[in-house]
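cron nightly-structures :: item 1 of 1
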Amino acid sequence: MSIKDYLKDRTLFLLINFILFIIICGIMLLININSKIILLIFCIWFFPILSYIIVEFIKQKSFYVKLNDIMESLDKKYLLSEIVKEPHFIEGKFLYDLLKRANKDMHEHVKKYRDMEHEYREYIETWVHEIKTPIASARLIIENNQNDITKDINTEIKEIEEYIEQVLYYSRSNNVSKDYIIKEVSLATLVRSVVKKNSRDFISKSISIDIEGVEGIVYSDVKWLEFILNQVIGNAIKYVRESIGKVKIFTTRNENNIVLTIEDNGIGIKEKDINRVFEKGFTGENGRKFGRSTGIGLYLCKKLAAQLGLGLTLTSKTGEGTKVSIIFPLGNVN
């Protein structure tokens, strides 16, 4: 706020006073009042007005400059009304009250949508657990009626289960801390568990698996790690070449971390898609070609890994394969 803009805003007030003074000055000249007296009246009239304007300008400018500085320094701009102090001039008080009311209304709306989101998440989690019952029953029926058709149905049910699990973890992805249990995790045990879960796919596609190079202990949440690893291995199985497919899982211990790497000899990822594979909803050329990619799996893995304090990187060459690395910082390593 400049003095020019401030005076411009008070042009009407100053103009009225000036016109009144001209009229009174004209009357005084008509009755032959001394010009020195007129000058004195001018000073008595306009000095207090100008002094008041200057004082008010300094006071208001100080407030708005401070307000702007606070706004610029805040990461969460909506917290402005919580931090700024109530000013001592009428316009500032009015603005302060408006900010407080707007902030209160914003919090009420945020609470409303937070409650709606919480209810929706609870419904999704309940639905996921409920849907597991008919799926388990279907698996039991398949076990008791083994044939080529039921084997195909079982494959599709497994894929349905993976999508359902993805829904569950997606609904919880913003609230990892509420479902987070840190404990000692053996990477070898973790990898064997996930590989066993996908054993039928490895066998049906004749994919060889090498997990001999996996060792090390980390501290994290085993359930979330299993989900991340299952998504990565699932992608390796999906895009690997049948009959000649190979998946190698190994660990590398560095000075500051342990790196768990999942490497395959699949079709690889186009160079133009590499930097976007962790974006939500991005399927890339492979996803469009194979038609079964949702663009959610790797996005979720990256998001959950970040919340667990882990690194997640991906490198790939078209026609040669893909390598995904999960990085466990030294602070998480025994």
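cron nightly-structures :: done
The chain has a mean pLDDT of 83.
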